[in-house]
Design a protein that fits this description.
globular; 2 domains; 19% strand; Chorismate synthase, AroC fold; 25% helix; 437 residues; alpha+beta
């Protein structure tokens, strides 16, 4: 439950019911016994809420669980009713995300089999919260005994201690990429809604591993398919560059090291108008979603940083009217979004993932009691996270787009649209034969 309080009056005001209560006294109190209703008249208030594990406004997803706990999953709230849904719809993307797929992923063996506990009846969503759970079956907590004492460089270990004063040591707890199972399961639902309602498709692929960069002109975003992406273990749609990427991962894998890379994601047939000026621009929402994934360190949209080398006249996407009378752009350097709103062109973005782990290599660090030491990390890790990050990126993009679609429908489609300027959000509905007009 949210509580309202003014920190200044609470801690310093002599008229407070707590009198001269000091900060040290507050630490000794159990939080459920504190009631702040008598402070509601103060002008400055601080909302205290559980934060960090819920995403979305209309289509809300909360993930739960730790890497080496009993299991992980999600709760989806706000899903429209009457959407055909089964575990199989989620399992396809969970299988793409799971560990142990190939020699270039972590060797942890998990089937990541999901089960829907609520929110679905007779194969259809009911409109009530959907709970999905995936058990953990291959935990090895003893692999992390050294990490209980010493911090892994560039991991969340130290930062979690700095924030909470306590952390889940095994596998990194909530900072583990295993948390993303809940996102991928929810993203599969979002992708199905988008496909059924507006024909929207979301596809991601690996476009860079370490120093191997796939040239943009070798991938046709109009015809790109899931089969193209899934044709090899690195999820690069170009066979020649896929082999180069696999070789780059193999080269560091045998040394116990890791490399980073880039995932490119596109969204086709996105309804026009999604996104809200000015703080909730669509690219801002997509950037937040992508950057919330583990190991992300960079985000580009449309022309990205390369656009800084162009002039305005070179970069601007000029408009024209196509053969169907639809306003389009001749180029797409804006990445399908202008003024923070989708304009009907293909949305494209790129997310950079850092190298993550080293196995069996000495690194300088400090212990929790502040002594410098050397750490040799153990456990099972991906030599390159980007192949498994592909379905994670797709999921986060889908969650943003379905949330924005529901917002657009609520605000702008309550009354008839202006057909001279606006387009319907949904696909045309074909009436069954013999149905009344």
């Amino acid at each position: 439950m949210a509580s309202s309080l003014s920190t200044k009056q609470f801690l310093r005001s002599p008229s407070s019911d707590f009198g001269s209560l000091q900060r040290s006294d507050l630490r000794n109190l159990s939080s459920p016994t504190l009631h702040f209703s008598n402070l509601r008249s103060h002008p400055k208030k601080l909302e205290i809420q559980a934060v960090g594990s819920t995403f979305g406004t209309y289509f809300r997803v909360s993930t739960y669980g730790e890497s080496h706990g009993g299991g992980v999953g999600c709760i989806i709230d706000g899903c429209p009713p009457r959407v055909p849904l089964s575990e199989a719809d989620m399992q396809l993307d969970l299988d793409r995300r799971r560990p142990g797929q190939s020699r270039i992923t972590t060797p942890r063996k998990e089937t990541d089999t999901c089960e829907i506990y609520s929110g679905v009846a007779e194969g259809m969503t009911t409109g009530s919260p959907i709970m999905v759970k995936v058990p953990n079956t291959d935990q090895r907590g003893h692999d992390y005994s050294e990490m209980s004492i010493s911090y892994r460089p560039s991991h969340a270990d130290a930062a979690y201690d700095f924030k909470y004063g306590v952390r889940s040591v095994q596998g990194g707890g909530r900072s583990s990429a295993r948390e993303t199972i809940g996102r991928v399961a929810a993203g599969a639902v979002a992708k199905k809604i988008l496909k059924l309602f507006s024909g929207t498709e979301i596809l991601a692929y690996v476009s860079q591993v370490h120093k191997v960069i796939l040239p943009e002109d070798l991938v046709d975003h109009e015809s790109l398919s899931l089969d193209d992406i899934e044709s090899n273990i690195v999820r690069c749609p170009n066979p020649e560059y896929a082999e180069k990427m696999i070789a780059a991962i193999d080269a560091v894998r045998v040394k116990g090291d890791s490399v980073g890379g880039v995932v490119t994601c596109i969204a086709r047939n996105v309804p026009r108008g999604l996104g809200s000026p000015v703080f909730d621009k669509l690219e801002a929402e997509l950037a937040k979603a992508a950057m919330s994934l583990p190991a992300t360190k960079g985000f580009e949209f449309g022309s990205g940083f390369a656009g800084t080398f162009m002039t305005g006249s070179e970069h601007n996407d000029e408009f024209f009217v196509d053969e169907n009378g639809r306003i389009r752009t001749r180029t797409n350097r804006s990445g399908g979004i202008q003024g923070g709103i989708s304009n009907g062109e293909i949305i494209n973005m790129r997310i950079a993932f850092k190298p993550t782990s080293t196995i069996g290599k000495k690194q300088q660090t400090v212990t929790r009691d502040k002594h410098e030491t050397e750490l040799i990390a153990r456990g099972r890790h991906d030599p390159c996270v980007v192949p498994r990050a592909v379905p994670m990126v797709e999921a986060m993009v889908a969650l943003v787009l379905v949330d924005q679609l529901m917002a657009q429908y609520a605000q702008c489609n309550m009354f008839p649209i202006n057909p001279a300027l606006q387009e319907p959000l949904e696909l045309p509905r074909l009436e069954p034969a013999g149905s009344p007009l």
